[in-house]
Write a structure and sequence with these properties.
CATH architecture of the largest domain: Orthogonal Bundle
Strand order of the largest sheet: 1-2-3-5-4
Oligomer: single chain
Strand content: 5-15%
Number of helices: 15
Helix content: 25-40%
Structural class: alpha+beta
CATH topology of the largest domain: Transferase(Phosphotransferase), domain 1
CATH superfamily of the largest domain: Transferase(Phosphotransferase) domain 1
Number of strands: 11
CATH class of the largest domain: Mainly Alpha
Shape: elongated
Radius of gyration: 26 Å
Length: about 525
């Protein structure tokens, strides 16, 4: 039955590789009550496979099960090892999870066939059809009970499924003839992730979801693992209760950041499992790590990074406001000059005619001053971008293990900086959000900055002076790990260690930006 909804190469992969391998060890796939829904003729033809490396060797020679050659490049769009993982993504996409659901009504073999000669099985017998909300309920009920999924996260998973089905039903006619691709949103059991390393920025102490770096170890893992399927970043999704008025729109996930799929993480403090985004671990780290380790000699790399980040913001602002742009949330996946935005925790839909009430959030000092009054708009993202543009030249980062001294971490004009760059920073950091340029204007101005211009010696001297100043300060002012996430001065928190969930005292935070106002 599933075969009617797959392109031919995925149909063959499903019957010749996925079904026999899952059948040989369903417990490793965490598929209790596994039942593949195939036509009678197909069931008889399914091969017996149990060894994944042997199966992959056969897949390497099986061009009918692979994606077609790219007409322009004359080679596979992905290498074969990467395709192996791509194929499994389709099989475990949430919109196909009805195929693994154990349905008790009319349980048993159903001999009725549809017009295509395929066995409709229990899904049809129970009055459910693929790609309908009721069809996936048995699977949702099962995993909710098995992993004790938080009710709000269960609800979010249902909403993700609904939007995924809508998107794919629209694109399916083109996809079936190879003219388009479908969105795959796989669900990976939590047992498929090993060696979790918690990322200590933010966390449960502020009500925000935890994040991890982990190793991806699905049952079909190969001996030779393509890099992006080996180490992964698990980004926790914060979905608060109704009293906090916070939720996540599934369209944010589909529209904004590249992810492998979803999994769950058990939180001992709540006794529930929470949804987590599975993302590629950035090959070149985050922008913050780049700022800390590299000192450029010319404007080429800062310009390339600025263009890359600004383009992401420009594209995002057609529909959304990010709400939490800072260097840790900019990942360098493909090259150390190409930044991708991550994190959808505080994202909201954009409105060109009104300001949205800010739901609280953002990392100081990247929080625009107007957010103290809860006025959220795309201009707040531009303010954060202005600070990043300053950092790309100054190479100063804000510590997560010390109270920030307003003098040591001041944001000020840089001696000897290119005038076009300084003017752009100053415009982005305007205290009046209405006077800041939009992302498109910032991008066009960055494009006009000439290439191969060396940094003025005064800029390099400034970088070294500021770095030495910060280093000397940190030697005597580092906080303990516990204090770095809880330290308060009065009713203010002056570390830049975590994302601010509640910003009631933003107007009392020290202003680090100095003398950047443009008359």
């Amino acid at each position: 039955m599933l075969l009617r909804y797959l392109i031919p190469s995925d149909q063959k992969f499903y019957t010749n590789y996925a079904v026999p391998l899952i059948s040989s060890c369903p417990e490793r796939f965490a598929l209790d009550g596994f039942r593949a829904r195939l036509s009678k003729d197909t069931r008889a033809a399914v091969r017996q496979l149990s060894d994944f490396e042997t199966a992959f060797s056969q897949f390497q020679e099986d061009t009918d099960a692979q994606y077609e050659m790219h007409p322009r490049f004359g080679r596979y769009v992905w290498d074969v090892a990467d395709q192996w993982y791509q194929k499994w993504q389709v099989i475990f996409s949430i919109d196909h999870m009805w195929n693994w659901a154990h349905i008790t009504e009319h349980d048993g073999d159903n001999d009725e066939e549809n017009d295509d000669g395929e066995d409709e099985g229990d899904v049809e017998a129970a009055g459910r059809r693929p790609f309908q909300p009721a069809t996936i309920e048995p699977w949702l009920d099962h995993i909710s009970q098995r992993y004790n999924i938080h009710p709000n996260h269960r609800q979010l998973l249902e909403r993700i499924y609904g939007q995924l089905v809508q998107l794919n039903q629209t694109n399916r006619p083109l996809a079936l003839v190879g003219a388009s691709s479908l969105n795959t949103m796989p669900f990976f059991p939590p047992s498929w992730f090993a060696d979790k390393e918690p990322q200590r920025h933010g966390g449960a102490n502020e009500g925000l979801a935890s994040s991890f770096v982990a190793r991806f170890v699905p049952p079909y893992r190969l001996t030779h693992v393509p890099e992006r399927w080996d180490r992964v970043f698990l980004k926790g999704l914060t979905v608060m209760d109704l009293t906090r008025q916070f939720t996540v729109e599934p369209s944010y996930i589909f529209s904004t950041i590249p992810i492998h799929g979803l999994t769950l993480h058990f939180d001992p403090s709540t006794g529930c499992s929470h949804l987590v985004l599975v993302m590629k671990k950035a090959s070149h780290g985050s922008l913050e790590e780049s700022l800390e380790h590299d000192i450029p000699t010319n404007y080429d790399k800062p310009r390339a990074l600025a263009l890359s980040v600004t383009k992401r913001i420009k594209d995002l602002h057609w529909e959304f406001v990010h709400g939490n742009i800072h260097p840790r949330n900019i990942l360098l996946n493909l090259a150390d000059t190409l930044g991708d935005l991550s994190d959808i925790t505080f994202m909201q839909r954009n409105s060109h005619s009104e300001h949205y009430r800010h739901r609280g959030g953002g990392r100081w000092p990247y929080i625009a001053p107007e957010l103290a009054n809860h006025n959220m708009s795309s201009a707040a993202d531009i303010y954060a971008l202005g600070i990043i543009l300053w950092q790309l030249v100054s190479r100063i980062t804000f510590p997560d293990n010390a109270l920030i001294d307003p003098h040591v971490y001041r944001i000020e004009p840089i001696p000897g900086i290119m005038k076009e760059w300084e003017d752009l920073i100053a415009d982005c950091l305007q205290s009046d959000p209405g006077k800041r340029p939009n992302a498109y204007t910032v991008y066009r101005r960055l494009e006009k900055i000439p290439e191969h211009i060396n940094l003025d010696p005064a800029v390099l001297d400034y970088i070294h002076h500021r770095r030495n100043e910060a280093k000397a300060y940190l030697e005597g002012h580092r906080l303990s790990e516990m204090a770095s996430t809880t330290a308060e001065v009065g009713d203010r928190v002056w570390t830049a260690s975590v994302t601010r969930w509640v910003n009631h005292s933003l107007d009392k935070y020290p202003n680090l930006v100095q003398r950047f106002e443009v008359v």
